[in-house]
Amino acid sequence: MTLIELLMAVCIFGLVVLGFGGINSFTYYHVVSSDKLIKLQNAAAYLLEHMAKNIGQAVGDTAISPSPISITTDGSETTITAWIDYNLNGRLDSYPSDRQIAYEYAGAPNYEVRYYYDYIGDANYEVITNRIYSFNCSLTDSYVFTELVACWNPTLACATSSNPALSMKNHIYMPAVTTH
Fold first, then answer.
1. Where are the extended beta strands (E) located within the chain?
2. Does an H or E element contain 32, and which?
3. What does pTM read for this prediction?
4. Which of 20, 39, 123, 174 is the most buried (most CB within 10 A)?
């Protein structure tokens, strides 16, 4: 084997190694990016399903106090409260027969959505997710419209190659809420 043949073999071997390295890094990047996006989608979908299940149980008449559903916004915080027919008698009763639940979105620096099982009697909450970059909701008739943007790390710039983001919308129907 001559020196030229040896140099050619080393060059070809180097190109093969670089090719495998490029394929490996490309595949790893896409697997990690897809994994982050899937986990993000699962967290956002779980939040919206959780809200639909609980807020959909709201009961009452919006013309009579207390209102069965309310949405308040204060700066970067949004709170949705709903009266739930806890004693299952089909009408809104006072606390503790029926309970008021709440979902509270706290923006920067936490970017989390908290669920309060008993908003009046108990200040304890459960953090549903801490990956929500923005959260908007509105109330029209017997529907709560929610729209959110979830981001893998909300403290950084969203929708980049290393920090995926997604947007989801949901319409929550409350069949036991009467509006006038």
1. 59-61, 69-74, 77-84, 99-106, 112-116, 126-129, 132-140, 143-151, 165-173, 176-178
2. helix 3-55
3. 0.81
4. 174
